[in-house]
Amino acid sequence: MNIFFRELKAYRNSTIIWIVSLSLLAVVFLSMFPIFTKDVETTKKLLENIPPAMASAVGLSINSLFSIYGFMSWLLTFITVAGAVQAMNLGVGVLSKEETGKTADFLLTKPISRTKIIFQKLLAILCLIIITNIAFCVIAFTTAVAVSSISFSVTTFILILLKLILIQIIFLALGFLLSVIIPKVKSSITISLPTVFTLFIIGTLGEVLNLESVRYISPFKFFDSNYIISHNAYELKYLVIEFIFVTAAITFAYFMYIKKDIKAAA
Fold it and tell me: Where in the chain are the domains?
């Protein structure tokens, strides 16, 4: 498990930064919730002046925004974008950095199969995502309990928070696949940022234009908060779509990598 621990160590500092950033964002905005809901009617009148298209673009739902569920859902609109970048950076970088850093041929000469290399690297970055989400969920939930004057369902709130990891896993798999397909990846951020923002914009435009079919394209629209609040569950078809995509992406990346020619360092 040397590769596994090496990857954990390599991404330790960046993961801490992501945890602090995402958690701080949640704490700062959730701390504003009591002020935001102090005068609901006045705030509603102000928000009603926002064009419906713009409100949809930023995930504003006036009907649910004044509950802790709705407020957290709106906040997650932005947090999931940041989380997707983190996950895709890990997915793209975990394999491609060996070729970029010219250490791939050295690693592959060791008495360890490519299957074990992929397994340990995937396990490491998945653990980093899980650690990020555990820390984020604990801090966000604790802050929500502190700022909300009304009791709320723990299950519903946690289901809303877990949208983050569900979206991250999709981008983790996508990044992992692209790292094998793209010949030379000089920087993971040059791939993750355009991909994440393109899919976010597609989802946003679909929301604005009321195109239901766009939900099948943009992972950001897979898990609708209003559905979660109403049914206390995720929509099964999107869970199935995620499972199929993640499985297919990782399987395809695996078979490509084990057959890939790795050039020796110059």
Answer: 2-259
